[in-house]
Design brief:
Length: 132
């Protein structure tokens, strides 16, 4: 299933990046604050509920995804980086988990396990004190 992220639903705010940046750091806003409202988005309902139930620090309790992108020095590259990270988050929620089928070990596997435990127990018994 291919999901299309509508970029008009994403709100970008230019902010000043943290960390070292030389003389330019206090003048230029190169980092991006990306905000995406899950509840108001055009995503399918199943993906919305999965996103809302995800235990991710970027998702607030009111259903807002907040991503701060400041890896690059240019505003455009940080904007693209933020969108890529948002798409990865949505793709993670779109994965359909295959239910686990409970299985039992075979009779021979159970027998081999018990035999190896007996063998190890005998080896450990031989390590005991020697009686003369």
């Amino acid at each position: 299933m291919t999901l299309v992220l509508n970029e008009s639903e994403v709100e970008f705010t230019a902010i000043r990046a943290q960390g070292a940046g030389g003389q330019n750091v206090n003048k230029v806003s190169n980092a991006i604050h990306l905000r995406f409202d899950i509840k108001a988005s055009s995503l399918p309902d199943e993906i919305k509920t999965k996103l809302l139930h995800m235990r991710d620090q970027r998702i607030s309790s009111d259903g807002m995804v907040v991503i701060k992108a400041q890896k690059h020095r240019s505003l455009e590259r940080n904007r693209d980086d933020g969108l890529v990270r948002l798409r990865e988050l949505i793709a993670l929620a779109a994965i359909i988990q295959v239910p686990r089928r409970p299985t039992k070990p075979t009779r021979s596997a159970q027998r081999k396990r018990l035999e190896s435990k007996l063998r190890r127990g005998r080896v450990k018994l031989l390590r005991g004190p020697v009686n003369d």
